[in-house]
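Hmm, how's this folded?
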Amino acid sequence: MFNIFHSIALIILLQSCGQSQGENQKDSSTKKTQEETTAILAVTGFGVDRTNISLKELKELYCKGEVYVLEKSQKRVSQVFSCKNTKILKDVRDFAPIAKENILLLDLENTNPQFKALSVDSISFFQNPEKYNLYALGEEKKKFDFQSKITKFTLTGTTAITRHMGRATSANGMDWLIANILNEVKNSDYLHVSNEVSAKDNCEYVSGMRFCMKTEHLEVLNKLGVDIVELTGNHNLDHGKDPYIQTMQWYKNNKMQVFGGGLTPEDANKPLIINLKDGKKVAFIGFNESCPVRECAGKGGNSVGAAPYDSIKVAKTIKELKNNKEISYVIASVQFDEVDSYSPTKSQTRITKYLIDCGADFVYGSQAHQVQQVEFYKGKPIFHGLGNFLFDQIHRLGVRQGFFLHNYFYNGKIVQSVPVFTFTAIERRPAFANPEEIKGIKKVIFLDKNLYQ
C-alpha cells in the first residue's frame, strides 16, 4: 500500500516539476535601465579552445555582420561599435546549437554559463575588470563596480585528506600540500569543498577504505580559505558518530557553513542560504543517492550524517525554495553511486535532469573520483563529476584528472563558470594540469552532443 501511494505522489511531483520551468520558476533578474554601465561580452561555446579576440577584429566582424548579437543587447553593443548588425538572435538559447563555430555579443546581464566569455585584447572581464575595455557606459558614465556586484564562488571536487595524502602531509606540512593551488582559490568570495572525512585526534593514516583525518589537518581548510563544507560524502561516519560531531563543531568554531549533512536528519536536509555581495540570496541543497556505507542521517539507526536522496522530498524542497521570493538561485548536489567512467550512469542522468525539471538552476555530482562529462540541459549546467580535489589516488589516469570551477554571480545568477584543470601529482598533492593534460581532460568530458543543445 505504501508503494502505491509513494508512486502516485511521485507522479504528481514529476508533473509539477515539468511545469516549474514555466509556471513556478521566477525570473531572478530585475529590470535594468539602459543608463547603467555594463560589460559587453564576446561569448562562444563552452568547450571551444579559443580564449581571446582582439577588439579590432571584434569590431570588424560585428560591423560586417559576421558575429551574432542578442536582440536585448543590440542597442548597447551598437553604442560601443558605432555601427549596426542584422545578425540578431531573439533568445540567447538560440545560440546553443551554433555556439561551437560562432561568436555572440551580448551584455553581462543576459549571458549564462553555457557560453564562454572570450578575453578581449588578452584581458578577461572576470579576471581583470579594471583593464577590460569593452563597456557600454551609462548616462552618468559611472564605472562598473565589479567588487560590489560580482560574487566569485569556487566549487571543488572530492576532498579526503587521509591514507597516502595524510602521511605525505604529516611528513611535508600543510602548506606543502596546497602550495600549487593556493593562489588560485584564496581570493574567492566563497570557496567550497566536499569533505568526506571526519577528524579525530588519534587518527592513523593507514591503507584501506575506512577513512579518518588528523584533527590538526583540518587547518588545511582554513589555509585554503574554505567557507562552505559539503557533507554528502560516504566516509564521514567511518569511525562513528563522535568524530563527526567533533568535526562539525570545528566547522562551526571556524565559521564554515555546511550543507548536505548534519547532527539531526532535519539539519542534514536543511538548505544552506548564502548572501551574495549584491544582496541576492542563493540556496544549496545536497543529498546522498543510496547511502552505501550507512553514512546517512535517519537511516540504519543513524541520528547524524548525510541527507539521503528521496525524489519526493527533493522536489518539495526545490519547490519551496523557488517559491521563496528571497531566493534567486538554487544549486543542487548529489553524492551519486561511484563509477569508474567518464560517462554518467543512467541514474545520474535521470536524477540530474529531474532536479532541473523541478527548478534547480545548477546541478553537480560530488561523488566522482574521476572527471565526468559536462552537460547543459534546458540551458542549465550539469557537472556530473569534478574528480578529486584533495585525495591521494594516482593509480590510473582518470582519478588523477580533475577540475574546479570559478563561478561568477551577477544579479542573482551565475553568468560564467570557468574550469581550472588539475592533475594529482605523483607525490600525492594537487597541481595544475599542463597543456597536454588539459587537452586529454577536455577530450573526454567536453562532448559536442552535451554542450551544444
Q: What stands out?
A: The longest strand covers residues 413-424. Residues 149-451 form a domain with the Purple Acid Phosphatase; chain A, domain 2 fold (CATH 3.60.21.10). The CA atoms of residues 106 and 113 lie 13 Å apart.
